[in-house]
Design a protein that fits this description.
Helix content: 25-40%
Shape: elongated
Radius of gyration: 31 Å
Distance between the termini: 84 Å
Structural class: alpha+beta
Number of strands: 20
Largest sheet: 6 strands, mixed
Strand content: 15-25%
């Protein structure tokens, strides 16, 4: 029950985007317009019996007054979920409190045939384009692709282990009741992924095990390209259909295998620190967003990750949601979900929030890492997130390469195993042990005590690069005066395997 003190507190704050004062029910038409605007926006409250200055004046409320209000509420389409409270001021007068919730699923509302919106403390007619877009959004909320029955999908066709994993993780995150049964059907019901006993298409995308021929959009594309264009040689190419949770895990694992690791020793520390070109949390957040927010209604849609020498691109089919632009993603913005059921399942596991802060966290992670924030763009119905970073060429280009008889090995090296160990000469072994951190060519030569530059280049440096054990810090500028050399992931593993107590290794 609302009290006069609460009314006085509200009135003291002044009119705003969610609060309006009306002196009396003589202003019922304007009251209806404002309530319509609140329903189409973030909700709001109209106080009838409060002057423009916030003074509580009240009015006498008769049966005729209540009939007028009820008649005003009938002029909404669709029906307005407005609640009314009567607050007596003690002098025979009352303040009427009309509360309108944010009702986006039913919006847009119209009052007397016109839609309204709220901007600051002003109510105005909604522009035609905005109204038409809101109508499309309302249709989407009721008839979304994700909440339609899945085609030829039975409960036994889903990944039961993944569903149980979701239950376990969601309970641990306190986003699902601990009393949720272990039966996968009951879990889907709790997640809203089974409606009236029918498995939804969202459940298929999240947990499906068979995607062709009915769900070709469950596609993940992974590619590593030589150079900086899509027409460069394809060094690694993987395309596979899988459910959403598996898609995220596979994409992250593939990037871990593909991206080079740079090693350095932080000042004052004797321990080496491994570093990818882009912070892992930024890549993970971006991949999750691509999987959650893409347009699954398009049969030809997919998520793709492309790695070039100078950048990493994460692409997803589907333009930005209504009301969101590329420029807004680097600022505070609302979370507008194209696929709330799919997003909800990820949210329950703690993988994402629902506050629209994901892109802001990605940008902040990049800044802390000391690299440029990603670029967000949309073209031809495909959203692309681009991380501009030096991944490096796949061969020791620029140092008189290619050279006959020398192998060409990608800087993104696989793990060294007993079965795959590079044949390291004593000279290369000495060079590697002389690289605790990044060194320039002259400094590295001096560290080895070598005077003959050509001998150093041919017997030490070039073989180490060709074996994929050492890489350039500026591979796109091989003759730069700022060029430095460092161990690759392969090189570090070789060091860890061969270093003895005196670090004599292969020396």
């Amino acid at each position: 029950m609302t009290t006069p003190d609460q009314i006085a507190t509200w009135a003291s704050t002044g009119e705003s985007d969610t609060l309006e004062f009306k002196r009396s029910t003589a202003e019922l038409r304007r009251t209806g317009e404002t309530l319509c605007a609140f329903l189409n926006g973030n909700g709001g409250r109209v106080l009838i019996g409060v002057g423009p200055d916030g003074k509580l004046v009240g009015q006498q409320v008769s049966d005729s007054t209540l009939r007028d209000i009820a008649a005003m509420l009938t002029r909404f389409e669709p029906a307005a979920p407005v609640e009314m409270d009567r607050v007596a001021l003690g002098n025979g007068r009352e303040v009427l409190v009309l509360d309108a919730p944010a009702a986006r699923q039913s919006a847009p509302f119209v009052f007397e045939g016109k839609p309204y919106r709220r901007v600051g403390s002003t109510t105005s007619v909604m522009p035609q384009q905005a109204y038409e877009r809101a109508l499309l959004d309302r249709s989407h909320s009721l008839h979304r692709w994700e909440n339609q029955p899945a085609v030829n999908v039975r409960l036994e066709d889903l990944d039961h282990e993944e569903i149980l994993r979701t239950r376990e993780t969601a309970i641990a995150q306190r986003r699902l009741s601990a009393g949720t049964p272990m039966h996968v059907g009951d879990i889907l019901d709790r997640l809203g992924l089974r409606i009236d006993g029918q498995i939804t298409q969202a459940a298929q995308i999240l947990y499906g095990t068979r995607f062709l021929p009915y769900y070709p959009q469950g596609l993940l594309k992974l590619g590593r390209f030589r150079g900086t264009t899509i027409i460069g040689d394809i060094l690694d190419n993987k395309q596979e259909h899988m459910h959403a949770f598996a898609m995220v895990r596979e994409a992250i694992a593939w990037l871990d295998r593909t991206l080079p690791l740079a090693a350095h020793f932080p000042k004052g520390s004797i321990f080496r620190e491994d570093r990818q070109p882009v912070p892992a949390e930024a890549l993970r957040e971006t991949i999750v967003n691509a999987v959650i927010h893409r347009d699954y209604s398009r049969a030809a849609s997919y998520v793709a990750i492309a790695v070039f020498d100078d950048r990493i691109e994460v692409r997803s089919v589907g333009d930005f949601p209504t009301g969101i632009s590329a420029a807004m993603l680097s600022q505070e913005h609302s979370s507008i979900l194209r696929n709330p059921l799919i997003a909800g399942a990820f949210h329950r596991t703690g993988a994402v929030e629902v506050w629209g802060r994901g892109t802001n966290r990605v940008i902040e992670a990049c800044r802390r890492y000391g690299i440029a924030p990603p670029e967000y763009s949309e073209m031809g119905g495909v959203v692309t997130v681009t991380f501009r970073t030096s991944v490096g060429p796949t061969v020791a280009e620029g140092l008189d390469a290619p050279r006959k008889g020398l192998s060409q090995r990608p800087t993104s090296t696989p793990e060294v195993t007993p079965e795959v160990t590079p044949e390291v000469t004593p000279e290369v072994g000495r060079l590697m042990f002389a690289l605790p951190n990044e060194l320039g060519r002259q400094a590295l030569q001096e560290a080895l005590g070598l005077k003959d530059s050509e001998h150093f280049r041919k017997a030490y440096l070039l073989p180490a690069i060709d074996l994929g054990l050492v890489e350039m810090t500026q591979p796109d500028k091989p003759r730069s005066s700022r060029q430095r050399y460092r161990l690759t992931a392969w090189g570090r593993q070789w060091i860890d395997k061969h270093a003895g107590p005196d670090r004599g290794g292969a020396g």
